[in-house]
Amino acid sequence: LCSDVRQRIQQRIAQAFGISSASMYLTKPTFFSRINNTEAKTTHDEYWHPHVDKVTYGSFDYTSLLYLSDYTEDFGGGRFVFMDAGSNKTIEPRAGRVSFFTSGSENLHRVEKVHWGTRYAITISFTCNPDHGIGDPILM
Q1: Which residues are listed as membrane-spanning (predicted)?
Q2: CATH number given to 25-131
Q3: Domain ranges of the chain
Q4: How crowded is the C-beta side of 111, counted as CA atoms within 13 Å?
Q5: pTM summary value
Q6: Which of 32, 36, 77, 104 has the most CB atoms in a 10 Å sphere around its CB?
Q7: Would you give per-residue pLDDT tens digits along the chain (140 residues)?
Q8: With DSSP H G I counted as helix, E B as strand and the rest as coil, what are the percentages for the chain, rounded to 5?
């Protein structure tokens, strides 16, 4: 299942950006996030600060998010916000929705603080550098 989801997302990103999916490699960290209104324990838990994935993670060239819960039904707040000059662009998470973008400084973003409930998502990122590529996760 993980491999199938990764391949489908990879193909859509390649199609959208006009590149070959063969030139894209899964990279780390690929992670599951569970965000609620508890206080942050580390700076990595402070998801609401604007950031650039390429700066934060280094190997990311393309970032995707697969949402696993619904905005306003499962949680309040927690929308994904692109910090654009002039006006921000906001994505409301919906279970099954995938958003993706280039990971460079052109896509400064943050997540609004979650006020109630729990927001679930999986981050799946890709690199164009085969030296930073990893294999698909194996579930035990």
Answers
A1: none
A2: 2.60.120.620
A3: 25-131
A4: 25
A5: 0.91
A6: 77
A7: 678 999 999 999 999 999 999 999 999 988 888 999 998 888 777 888 999 999 988 999 999 999 999 999 999 999 999 998 888 999 999 999 999 999 999 999 999 999 999 999 999 999 999 999 988 877 66
A8: 25, 35, 40
